[in-house]
Amino acid sequence: MWPNCAGMSIGSLPHTNPAEACEHTIKSTPEVVALPLLPNTSFKETICIYTCEKLPGLVIDEANLKVYLDDDLFHEQTEEFYNQYLAGNLDYFSFTGEYTRGYSAMIDILENRNLKGIRYLKGNVSGPVTVGFTVKDRQNRPIFYNRLYRDCMIKNLNMKARWLENRFSGLNPKATTLIMFSEPILGVIGSSFYSLQKEEVIESINACLEGLNGLTGIHCCNNTDWEMLLSTKIKYISFDAYHFMETFALFSDKIHEFLDGGGMIAWGIIPTEQNKLSTEASEIADWFLNCIKTLSDRGIPKKLLLERSFITPVCGTGSLSVEAAERIYSLINPVCTIVRQKEKIF
Asked: Is 2 exposed, middle or buried (0-12, 13-18, 19+ CB in 10 A)?
């Protein structure tokens, strides 16, 4: 089952009422229902931190908005962590309401309501590079550089992804499960601040995918080495096509190979800047079709591109106002409808 230009959200919303956030998500993207992340409800529900629950040694200082690993605490908790991992205890690694109020609310809705038209169920997990360079030890060193910390961090992310996929299967066995790993920090990897080999990125991402059977993807809203991501085992790439289409298109041969192998692209074409909120759906649809033309002119069949595409906002909207986020979400379905009508996708 291909998306055929279905609309999809990235994940985060500025709402503080989980029920309202869920209803807005369902209304805006009925084919791809995503669990919403609500960073304004709690520091624990912000990017990276929401996926760090159960990570050995984790210390969350909510008063000072800090998170780090404590070495002594890490060694106290490591044995239990590995025992639960080796036992395959997915429930131990579950997303809980304390860290993900939006996830819990949406799961409750999906359990108790018969929502029609859902083709995909989507959940986000922070990616290993972003977590590994955001969370630091007491000496302010990224935990990615410590092999033991990194191993636990990757295993924690993998088990959370597996828990989500398993939970989705129980909620709606007919819907395709879709797990997206958020990797915004990949835009600065290779700079003087973040030294990392390409092979380490690929290896870390692939390790997070172990045991997953549904769709897996990477979201990066910054410019990065797209060939590197296309070389991983992920099944779809979510990127900011509004700003970075030109550099993405440089890898057209690799993109063609990726699509031929069953890959998909989530096009972040709906702008999220405040000064772009008045942009009309028809204009955005034209931008999207110009992106498709750019790649089809480079030899990728247009039909292949259209059937393997999702249409999304550029990035999450958690840092925006509720009014701005709802305006952006209100454009998703109209853009998809215009594209499908123009291209006769039914």
From this structure: middle
CB 106 within 8 A of CB 25: yes
Please give the CATH architecture assigned to the domain spanning 6-51+90-343.
Alpha-Beta Barrel (3.20)
Indicate whether this model's pTM tops 0.85: yes
Residue 188 has pLDDT above 80, yes or no: no
CA gap 78, 80 in Å, rounded: 6
Rounded Cα gap, residues 57 and 71, in angstroms: 6
Q: Where are the domains of the chain?
A: 6-51+90-343
Closest CA to 224 of 216, 232, 235: 232
Given a contact cutoff of 8 angstroms between Cβ atoms, the answer to whether 192 and 140 are in contact is no
Q: Which two tokens stand for residue 164?
A: 């989500």
Total residue count of the chain as it appears in this document: 346
Residues 6+ apart with CB under 8 A from 153: 52, 55, 128, 131, 132, 135, 143, 144
322: closest CA among 46, 69, 12, 89?
12
- DSSP 8-state secondary structure symbol assigned to residue 93: G
**Tokens 């797209």 sit at which residue?**
226
Distances (CA, A) of 255 to 141, 153, 234, 238, 311: 35, 30, 13, 13, 17
- Helical segments of the chain, H only: 18-28, 71-86, 101-112, 128-134, 147-171, 198-208, 226-230, 241-248, 252-260, 281-296, 302-307, 322-343
| Amino acid at residue number 278 | S
Judged by DSSP in three states, 42 sits in coil
Encoding tokens for residue 286?
């034209």
pLDDT in tens, 64-109: 999 999 999 999 999 999 999 999 999 999 999 999 999 999 999 9
The residue type at 113: R
Alpha-carbon gap, residue 24 to 46, rounded angstroms: 20
DSSP-derived secondary structure for 95-127: --TTT-HHHHHHHHHHHHS---S--EEEEEEE-
| CA-CA-CA-CA dihedral for 221, 208, 145, 73, to nearest 10 | 110
